[in-house]
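Re: that chain you flagged

S.,

Sorry for the slow reply, it's been a week of failed gels. I finally had a moment to sit down with the sequence you sent. For the record, here it is as I used it:
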Amino acid sequence: MLVKIFTDGSARGNPDGPGGYGTILQYVDPRGELHEREYSQGYIRTTNNRMELMAAIIGLEALNRPCEVELYSDSQYLVHAFNQHWIDSWQKKGWVRGKNEPVKNVDLWKRLLAAKKPHRVQFFWVRGHDGHPENERCDRLATSAADGDHLIEDVIA
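Prediction finished late last night. Pasting the structure tokens below so you have them in one place:
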């Protein structure tokens, strides 16, 4: 079964500075019916890149059986990590990365790899805020989450 996952991390939201992130899963069941599930993860105090990673993780972890997955994100960082094989070189080097890669992201990358493992995943970059309808929906979802009052507990601080 093909599942499309649209993710977004948003640095907007609460005036205190936290952002939120959102995930939409879209799939067609064996009868040909389209289904969508939306996840709104609340607001967190972290970087936009880390929100993008969490949005992708939540989407992949929500799948209860191996699937063919197309993951769409406006994060070049997330998509290029796989499409340009950055993640492979980080693993081969024992997770040693350049000066611009926050050490805190290591656990998130490892968790994303574990969530990705049972699936066949292709990563696609959708330029953010260019009017792409799915990207805009995810952006609204993430901003709505950021405006909420609940904290996400499932975040590596």
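What I noticed first: The mean pLDDT is 80.

Talk soon,
D.
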